[in-house]
Amino acid sequence: MVFVTDHAILRYLERAHGLDIEAVRNHIASLCATGAELGALAVKVESVKFVLVAVGPDTTVTTVVKRHWPVTPRSVQK
């Protein structure tokens, strides 16, 4: 069996098909900016849900799930 990591898929899309990863990153960040400012756990947009985790003044989009999936607060260790 051959396993393919998410990293390998991302690099394949970037290098073989010209996907602009930074443009996608910036697009997601702009979609989540207001939710992050308001301290949201997630942002529903474009038929998905972006899961947010705040650490200090910064917020990280940690994953993308189906729009109807539940999101619960996570404890963040400093």
Highlighted features:
single chain; 78 residues; alpha+beta
Structure, briefly:
The chain has 78 residues and is an alpha+beta fold.
| Biggest sheet, spatial arrangement of strands | 1-2-3
Mean pLDDT: 92
Tell me how many strands there are. Answer: 3
Strand composition percent: 25-35%
Alpha carbon gap, first and last residue: 38 Å
SSE arrangement, N to C: HHEEE
List the helices and strands and how they pair.
Blueprint: H1 6-17, H2 21-37, E1 42-45, E2 48-55, E3 58-66
Antiparallel strand pairs: 1-2, 2-3
Description:
This protein has helices at residues 6-17, 21-37, and strands at residues 42-45, 48-55, 58-66. The model has no long low-confidence stretch (mean pLDDT 92). Strands 1-2-3 form a 3-stranded antiparallel beta sheet. It has 78 residues and is α+β, with helices and mostly antiparallel strands.
